[in-house]
Specification:
Blueprint: E1 5-9, H1 14-25, E2 29-34, H2 41-51, E3 57-59, H3 65-74, E4 79-82, H4 89-94, H5 96-117, E5 121-127, H6 151-169, E6 174-180, E7 182-184, H7 203-211, E8 218-221, E9 233-234, E10 236-238, H8 239-254, E11 262-267, E12 273-274, H9 275-286, E13 292-295, H10 310-316, H11 324-338
Parallel strand pairs: 1-2, 1-4, 2-3, 4-5, 5-6, 6-11, 7-10, 8-13
Antiparallel strand pairs: 9-12
Helix pairs in contact: 1-2, 1-8, 3-5, 5-6, 7-11, 9-11
């Protein structure tokens, strides 16, 4: 039987590149497209080195319908995983139109071409940001979505709604939205990992850049929250575990095991970890001392959010497995690789 082919939009990005590796390991063929606006072609080379497969790569912007159409004409894939989107919360507040134009137009192009070409399966990269500040914890897939706190979060909610409505309207189209919690870490090979441009917006790259001497000091935003140590609680999931969840979701679609035309899954560990615990865990895992300080709260930060993962565990047959210490070691190994410190 021929291998199923999966198109990965934004496949040179952090989660996309790790997902390409895991798809190939699971027996799929992958085609990567990316406009490299917030990623590097080196990530595609990393995927090729890890897998030993000359993965096809096309430099394409999913907002460019004509260019995307050519990809559909050239490759015979039944499933697409859509990662391509801008993702910085702060920037989205400052430049909302940039986010609405890019994140929604690109996704609507994908949906329209999937319908036109009769390709059945769309896997959408969503986010726990759709839950806002939840009233009860942990959050399940039935937890109500709150009004988004940023245009970025709003594009995730709107794209979910677009996918839901397309799957309801167009016979044969199936969609799954994976709501990620906080992806961290890197591939054990240290050949791919998170590579933010400029000042990192996420905690772990800021930690590793501080450890590497690129940043003078790590700021922890607020220690007066109603949590055990006063810092925010998050659900940190290893990026390789997250990538494997995409494989499980693609399996579910290609093997026709979906119970509805559109499904949602929370992808996390189910275990809350505080910001301070994560910082101290990084120090322990790598035998380092970080320069950090407590500063005032940051606007838009929710106090606590973590996943109830029972639905994903049961329906997808998937579970987060990598220990946090191992994940934090992999993040540091990747940082050292990038900086030539090995």
């Amino acid at each position: 039987m021929a291998k199923e082919t999966v198109l990965i939009s934004g496949g040179a990005g952090y989660i996309g590149s790790h997902t390409a590796v895991e798809l190939i390991a699971a027996g799929y063929d992958a085609v990567i497209i990316d406009n490299l606006s917030n990623s590097e072609a080196a990530a595609v080379e990393g995927v090729r080195r890890i897998t030993g497969v000359d993965v096809p790569f096309e430099r394409v912007d999913t907002c460019d319908e004509a260019a995307l159409r050519r990809v559909f004409e050239k490759y015979d894939f039944g499933s697409v995983i859509h990662f391509a989107a801008y993702k910085a919360v702060g920037e989205s507040v400052a430049e909302p139109l940039k986010y609405y134009r890019n994140n929604l137009a690109s996704f609507m192009n994908v949906c329209a071409l999937m319908k036109e070409f009769g390709r059945p399966n769309i896997l959408f990269s969503s986010s726990a940001t759709v839950y806002g500040e939840p009233d009860t914890l942990p959050v399940t897939e039935q937890t109500p979505r709150k009004p988004a706190t940023s245009p970025y979060g709003n594009t995730k909610q709107m794209a979910e709604d677009i996918l839901h409505d397309c799957c309801a309207a167009y016979e044969g189209l199936h969609g799954i939205a994976l709501r990620y919690f906080n992806p961290i870490g890197a591939h054990p090979s240290a050949l791919i990992g998170e590579l933010p441009r400029g000042v990192p917006q996420n905690l772990v790259p800021y930690i590793t850049q501080t450890a590497a001497g690129l940043r003078e000091c790590l700021s922890i935003f607020g220690d007066d929250y109603d949590t055990p140590d006063g810092t925010c609680l998050r659900d940190y999931i290893d990026v390789v575990d997250l990538a494997k969840a995409h494989v499980a979701a693609v399996d579910r679609m290609t093997q026709r095991r979906m119970k509805e035309a559109y499904e949602i899954f929370n992808i996390g560990t189910g275990t809350p970890v505080s910001v301070l615990e994560l910082v101290k865990g990084f120090e322990r895992a790598n035998g380092l001392t970080l320069n950090y300080k407590i500063v005032g709260r940051r606007a838009g930060d929710v106090k606590a959010v973590w996943a109830d993962t029972q639905r994903a565990n049961k329906e997808l047959g998937w579970k987060a497995e990598r220990p946090l210490e191992e994940t934090l070691r992999s993040a540091w190994a990747w940082e050292k690789h990038v900086r030539g410190m090995n």
